Amino acid sequence: MGTYILHFKNFLASRVSREIFHDLLVSSLWALLLGFPLFVVFLLLIYYELYLHGYKQIFSFFHIFGRIVPLHLASLFLWFLVIGLTVFAIRRFIHQQRQLIRIREQLAITQSQALTDGLTGAWNRRGFDLLLLTGFTEVQTCDSPYTVILADVDQFKHYNDQFGHLAGDEALRKVVRVLKYAVRSEDAVARYGGDEFAVLCPGLDQDGALALVNRLMSAVSSTPLTLSFGYATYSIDGQDEREILKIADQRLYLVKIRKAAHRRRKLGLIQREATRTPESH
């Protein structure tokens, strides 16, 4: 018995119970405010109908209120009960719908946070994988092109060592802002890795991909970082998402190698120029 009493006390102290009691109180007030006048009007209509059929007793609102209602207290109670329960059920339904809306909004926020990179606001790797799988499922059904662009920040470690990690984080955020501004509205920008990014482009063929890469390269020039790009297009470069990613990554790697070779040649020329004697000039 004591356990049941304890559970009942805990229920009374809970938020749900307070909401239920509040709804019961409001429903009771509505039952009184609406129920009694409506019940009197209801009886008035009944007695008016009887009057039309030969019942010659005087009827009026005050007559019904003073003489007839006391004869129907059980019906009045049932009337109050029906109205009160109806109002209570409506209030609980509305409250539950509002709770469901808040839960859906919270779930949407949570899901968005789970699929979004906390630093840059771009899609994270999980979001990238989900979008890629969904996108390829759609394009393989309708046989339309799909381009994946991979981008890698050049010498990001050197930038971090020179300017600090806070500056590096801000530079990455700026890169994402620039990429999002440069891509099409239907494209998705994702942070593929630490200093690697990806752009998913549904419906974009090879010519469009090349034009978009050139636009991205031009846009990124406004940031303190430089990026290397590689891209691949379904179904010319591959038949599924794995092949497309592999080809895009290989092309990105080749661009990185060419850039590294160019930097080495440039550094070698600078070093040779620095070691030349004054007489050689």
What does this structure look like?
By secondary structure, the chain is α+β, with helices and mostly antiparallel strands. The protein is built from nine helices and four strands. Helix 2 crosses helix 3, helix 2 (15-52) crosses helix 4 and helix 7 (165-182) packs across helix 8. The N and C termini lie far apart (106 Å). The model has no long low-confidence stretch (mean pLDDT 80).
Name a few traits of the molecule.
4 strands, 281 residues, 69% helix, elongated, single chain
Which CATH class of the largest domain applies here? Alpha Beta
**At the third CATH level, what is the topology name of the largest domain?**
Alpha-Beta Plaits
Total domain modules: 2
* Most strands sheet: 4 strands, antiparallel
Strand order of the largest sheet: 2-3-1-4
* Helicity range: 55-70%
What integer value in Å does the Rg equal? 37 Å
Poorly predicted residue ranges: none
Distance between the termini: 106 Å
CATH architecture annotation name of the largest domain: 2-Layer Sandwich
Give the number of DSSP strands.
4
- The amount of beta strand, in percent, is 5-15%
Which class of secondary structure composition applies to the elements? Answer: alpha+beta
- Count up the helices: 9
- CATH homologous superfamily assignment of the largest domain: Reverse transcriptase/Diguanylate cyclase domain
Structure at a glance:
The chain is an alpha+beta fold.
Layout of secondary structure:
Blueprint (H helix, E strand, L loop, with lengths): L1 H12 L1 H38 L8 H8 L4 H43 L9 H18 L3 E8 L2 H8 L1 H18 L5 E4 L4 E7 L3 H15 L6 E8 L6 H35 L6
Antiparallel strand pairs: 1-3, 1-4, 2-3
